[in-house]
Amino acid sequence: MSVLVEIEKLFENHGGELYFGELVTQAEHALQAALEAETEGSTSALITSALLHDVGHLLQGLPEDIAQQGVDAHHEVIGSKWLGKYFGADVCEPMCLHVDAKRYLCTVEPEYLATLSDASVLSLKLQGGPFNPEQVAKFESNPHFKEAVRLRRWDDRAKIVGLETPDVAHFRPYIEASLKMNSPQ
Ligand code: FE
Questions:
Q1: Which domain holds residue 128?
Q2: Which one-letter DSSP state was computed for residue 57?
Q3: Distance from the CA of 54 to the center of ligand 1, in angstroms?
Q4: Which of 42, 58, 56 is nearest to 98 (CA)?
Q5: What's the CA-to-centroid distance between 15 and ligand 1, angstroms?
Q6: Ligand 1 centre distance from Cα of residue 6 (Å)
Q7: Domain assignment of residue 184, yes or no
Q8: Three-state DSSP class for 18?
């Protein structure tokens, strides 16, 4: 099965599930994040990263109240392992860092925490809370940290009930252009 078919199947099978504690589905959330990335004229890799930033949730198929149960499912680690089979660091790293980006922004932008949804604040606690200064410095030393912060902001906004977006097929060209075999690094 090609990765494109695999991605479409993951969205077909699990995309209709609610996005943890929010009023949009996994698919709506992913498509809204990818649309934000496309609207900002991002690279194919970053649009792909936005579309697939929560693929770990689709792969895991965990109950949508998982955070209320006090579990951090480490979806970003599971997702980036899977993505790493097909994509390079320009797709995998921003995606893998999108949880750290939340912890980072909570420290460097004091007003950021107030913009987070209740579900996001709850998961923040399970993810370790805001970064300390050493963690901030380490995060900023990652060559992909700026992309991770951009992705994080799209992620935070991609929770709009009823927003019209293109479907997964619309994003195929970006996914194809980002595949390791099409963009050797
Ligand atoms: Fe997300």
A1: 3-178
A2: H
A3: 5
A4: 56
A5: 13
A6: 20
A7: no
A8: strand
Give me the tens of pLDDT residue by residue for the chain, a chain 185 residues long.
Answer: 688 999 999 999 888 888 777 789 999 999 999 999 999 999 999 999 999 999 988 887 655 555 555 555 577 888 888 899 999 999 999 999 998 999 999 999 989 999 988 888 888 988 899 999 999 999 999 999 999 999 999 999 999 999 999 999 999 999 999 998 886 55
Token pair of 64, please? 């949508």
Count how many domains the chain has: 1
156 alpha carbon to ligand 1 midpoint, in Å? 7
Read off the pTM. 0.89
Q: How far is the CA of 171 from the centre of ligand 1 (A)?
A: 17
Cα of 29 vs centre of ligand 1, distance in Å, is 7
**Amino acid letter for position 13:** N
Other CB atoms within 10 A of residue 25 CB: 17
185 domain-assigned: no
